[in-house]
Amino acid sequence: MHSIWKGAVSFGLVNVPVKLYAATHSHDLSLHQVHVLDGGRIRYQKVCELDGEVVAQVDIAKGFTEGRKKITLTKEDLAKLPAERSREIEVVEFVPSEQVDPIMFANTYYLEPDSKSAKAYVLLRQVLTETNRTAIVKFALREKSHLGVLRVRDEVLVLQTLLWSDEVRDPDFPSISDVKVTERELDMAKQLVTSFESDFHPELFIDDYQAQLRTLIDDKLAGGDAVTVDDAFGKYHSDDDGEDMTDLMAALRKSVAAAAARKAPPAGPAAETKPARAPRKPRARKPVAS
Q: Which domain holds residue 138?
């Protein structure tokens, strides 16, 4: 694992230098869309809805719409906001662990001590365990303020971001408000629960869909259904090359124009009176601000 952030946990006068690691990852296989006829990748372009032009990334800003009013927020506008760059995870209070509703949990991170002495780290871990308390913390990550909790998992401090209170919706389901169950129904339901009682072992559960998808892919690869992507194709179809789609569109337009020119019949008198329309030139890219 690679750390994604370095800082310190502070509570009172105690300062615990730590490194932050993502604690989870997705095991889903990454699929993409292809053209059934030739296997070519399907790409999405950023097109302006007003003029239909493909827009380069350098010409894209953020916008906000409220009702019928729309505003544009440039990088210069956003740069004026007070960016959150603090490297401190501040403990604001210690609360009973059962008071933190799991619905508020968002992303999970592991904390590793980032100093030669891990005593302060172990002290915080032990006090959380023995008091059965969870630390409510405030911190900044990727220039955004976050609310979070510190808790202990397998002798490691875990930081979990929390949703803000106004991000959790209140349920409103009138259809269940007046429903009554009988004592007999409740007793039978309890017997059913008892028959399914067990200890939770997450490693015993697998993602059947992903496992079968992996088998399907392996069978196709072994069965000779795969095609080799040549260098020319890969040049424009790599997810990681970072090339501007505007440059790609210019190359495609030129290719279409050249192919059309080869197939066009010899120019006659009618063609001379109405010259062919030249392909539209691609928009010039603006220099990227340094």
A: 5-25+82-166
Give the Cα separation of 52 and 66 in Å (integer): 24
From the CB of residue 174, how many other CB atoms can be counted at a distance below 10 Å? 6
Q: Has residue 53 been placed in a domain?
A: no
The answer to the question of residue 270 being in a domain is no
* Domains of the chain: total: 2
Q: What is the mean pLDDT of residues 228-235?
A: 52
Q: Give the mean pLDDT of 126-149.
A: 92
For 81, list phi and psi in degrees, rounded to 5: -75, 150
Q: Would strands 5-11 and 14-22 be described as parallel, antiparallel, or unpaired?
A: antiparallel
In terms of domains, do 140 and 197 share one? no
Dig out the tokens for 263 from the structure.
Answer: 């197939």
- Residue that is last in its domain, among 166, 193, 213: 166
14 and 86 assigned to the same domain: yes
**Interval 111-118 mean pLDDT:** 88
Quick one: average pLDDT of 115-120?
85
CA dist., res. 137 & res. 144, Å (int): 14
On whether residue 284 sits in a domain, the answer given is no
Residues 249-267 have a mean pLDDT of 60
Domain for residue 233, yes or no?
no
